[in-house]
Design goal:
Number of domains: 1
Structural class: mainly alpha
Largest sheet: none
Radius of gyration: 18 Å
CATH class: Mainly Alpha
Distance between the termini: 44 Å
Order of helices and strands: HHHHH
CATH architecture: Up-down Bundle
Number of strands: 0
Helix content: over 70%
Strand content: under 5%
Length: 182
């Protein structure tokens, strides 16, 4: 398993435990910085995280349809790097600053949209674990079985479907975050 995959799973597990600790009242987050700074860091995390989740598959699809094995391998390596340097920190910024900001509203259970967002975050993480393993399997197949187009195509289709499902919960949370009554 690649370093990126290990870090991704560990990051998700740690953030899930922190969120669960806040959710159950074992830990209570407060603003460490000003409200504006937490909001800025939260939005920055959302832009980095969701931006990479949207753009990554687009250029990976372009690499796939180019039918150039070298371009596809490069895209796979780049996807691993952007997951490591964009998605993982973006999720961490989003969740940690979101938990701090929720303290202003009385905690993660005080507002219905915050409570439902926690449920959706857990759903995203549950779906993300098999996605990380599937992505790892895809990268290994591309590296070791580059001529096996049938297998790579099958893995790419599975990765695309599961990746699309993983995108649904954060997209709903983003919508709620924007339209929430304050």
């Amino acid at each position: 398993m690649s370093t990126s995959s290990k870090i991704s799973i560990l990051n998700g597990l740690i953030l899930m435990l922190i969120t669960l600790a806040d959710f159950t009242g074992m830990v209570h987050f407060e603003l460490l910085l000003s409200y504006q700074w937490h909001k800025l860091l939260h939005i920055l995390g959302v832009v980095i995280f969701m931006g990479n989740m949207i753009v990554g598959p687009v250029w990976f699809s372009y690499a796939f349809y180019s039918k150039d094995a070298h371009v596809l391998k490069f895209a796979a390596k780049l996807l691993q790097k952007t997951d490591l340097y964009l998605t993982i920190p973006g999720v961490a910024l989003t969740v940690l600053n979101g938990l701090c900001l929720s303290a202003v509203y009385g905690g993660s259970q005080a507002q219905p949209w915050l409570l439902h967002s926690i449920y959706l975050i857990f759903t995203m993480w549950v779906l993300s674990v098999p996605l990380v393993f599937l992505q790892e399997k895809l990268f290994v197949a591309m590296e070791t079985e580059a001529q096996n187009e049938v297998k790579i195509n099958r893995l790419l289709i599975q990765w695309s479907i599961l990746g699309s499902l993983v995108m649904i919960p954060p997209s709903i949370i983003f919508y709620w975050m924007v339209v929430k009554p304050v």
